[in-house]
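Z., the sequence and structure:
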Amino acid sequence: MKTELKAKFIQHILAKKKGDEGFTLIELLVVIIIIGILSAIALPSFLNQANKAKQSEAKTYVGSMNRAQQAYYLENSTFSTSIGSLGLGIATQTINYTYTAVSGGDASSINNRAKVINSGAPLKAYVGAVEITTQQATSEATTVAVLCESNSAMVNGGANADTITIGTTAGQPTCPASYVSLAK
């Protein structure tokens, strides 16, 4: 019985000694390296979300300006270059963009623009256009709209919206070469 008691006592002491051990330096370094790799992967994606939110402001504003121009034309038989007269309640300038409505060269079109204010920010410019077109089947005049996004951000040599004018192909407004249509 004595021998059995000694064996249990020795097992108890050895188990207690293992319980007092902590992490080794190598184990801690491995955990820190893994956390560093994960944060290096996640951080750029997280920071890009802020820019997407800023760009969504411009997308929403220009799209709203397009729809408001269509409603304004329906009521007044002309487009408006004054954003205030569209009744949207949006600011003509925010911290990231300046919004303007510019005649497309004649009375049958209008260009709505979101110009990036800070060219150091990685934001894209947006241009919208509303045009009057005639339906071939019914010979009725109607308005058509398009919303265009620049291919690259301003810091990457992207085109800003201050001088962009939307062209027309087969009675439909089309985006310039440095822009892509956001039509769904």
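Residues 147 and 183 are 7 Å apart (CA to CA). The mean pLDDT is 82.

Let me know what you think.
H.
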